[in-house]
Amino acid sequence: MFAPSGGKDGPVDRVGCEKKLKATFNSHDQVVDVVSCWHSFFDSSYASRGDGVFFDRFPRIGTSKKTPDFTMLFGEKYGIVVDVARSIDHETSVLESKAMQLKSYDSKLPLSAGRGKDPIVPEMVDILLLLHTTFSNRGTKLLFEIQEQRKELKLDNNLIVMDYDFSQSDAQSMYVFKKMLYEKNGSFRDNGLPEAKCLEKMLGVEQQPLRCAPDKFVVNKATYAFCNDAPCSIYLATRLWDRVFMLLLSDSDRDVWRQKSSTRTVNLKTSVDAIRQEILKNIAPGCELSNETIIGALEFLQVTGRAERTGNDWLIHYGNLPARKRKKHDTVSAEASLFEMRENGEILAEMYCRGLAGEKWQLEVPEEEEPEDEDQQMTILDFLSEKRSP
User: In the chain, what are the domain boundaries?
Assistant: First the structure.
């Protein structure tokens, strides 16, 4: 669990505590965004090609259970194993560790062809590294140099490096992915695909960027919620609050929660195993969260005053989180759902740090803010149902 400065031996630096928690949340949230972008792109561009074409969001490859961030299978001839590096230190030891990780994917790998289907070992597998633009130029150069110097780390298959950034310079904010212009950068060997679908033609030869605005990936992100990296405590706590606990509520308790003006707390008794099974069954099949990860999130909520351990179970004091800046939305749009989830993370960060400091949350509503009406608030579940309806 996150450990802020201060505590038993001194006062908690609440401002520093919140800043670190929010940075931790944002870092993991961005990886989920990136995976959701590519998942949405793959499904819209390739999924209709039939059997043997599959995006695996939670890969566990082979007997050693290798865990890249995701894989893309394009049939029996071609597949891509993908690693996302939100940050990468330029120290040699860190880059060598990354090179060793990429080398572990450099073999004939059985890639998932879908739930309930036998995996496929494609004839060719390339490795794609998605590197944040802050680290991409120097990181790419040093990584290829290490592979040249350490022959045991040199790949037999192609390594393609792309950088990415969240651009806010255009009229619409979006993620932008570009193939690195570096002489040693590899090529996608996907010439077996229709020309219009070839990644190398689009991203390499024509140097087109892959653009992904929130409205392109928000449904995917809301649906699957997680990525293959273990979530940090604040991120998992936030997703438990805005998604998982909602599913565990009874219909009558959910009706109470949906009232905008309701301040009632619904006591939800649950367990680590119940949470894990809910995620696996109804949110993200294949997402394997350890006991330690789930307990870490519950202990985080315990500090906020919203959870209590009762033997082997947990009692969740579920309800609307206090908010001083929450925007009102007539409908649940892409931007609204993203904003509310991230705002919940900020609120929980403040509640956690106040809890560590022994402070009680005080809801401060600006004088000019009008009281909320009695209409029912739409939830992320409503949003997903609305998007899936014909």
Answer: 22-220, 230-388
